[in-house]
# Entry
Amino acid sequence: MQFQPWQRILAPPAFSRFAESVVAYAHGLAERLGAELHVLHIGKSLDAVVAEYGAQGTVGPLSTEDDYDRWLASLLGERGTVRRVEAVRVGPDVARAIAHYAEKQTVDLIVMASHGRGGLAHLLMGSVAEQVLRLAACPVLVIRPAGEKPTK
# Structure
């Protein structure tokens, strides 16, 4: 297997209480590598997506392009140092949606957080990160958020 430089990095913060740190980590990686960052939000239903990710703002006809860019940057949390693609998908199978998006967008690396589930909860529900590892055609980097201890 020959290493190919990572040009597109996907950070799917779906259902993670560490969503902000995952995106920040992936952003830093994309910045260092000169890669494009894709941030994929997934909701189980259209109502859930609208409730969670619905955005509202006003940019009038007299507004400049800079006004629009500033509004969009504040909405997305963009620091302007990498090209960032925001996407929203609806579907009940989060892992499959992540893997499908990565394949369609020719993503080179997926960056995810572990959820720290252990014991019976892990046995019954598995982990989204584990499922993505099995389904994705590209490498998956699973990070443990600061302060989270490994489960035994």
Notes: The chain has a mean pLDDT of 77. The longest helix spans residues 19-33.
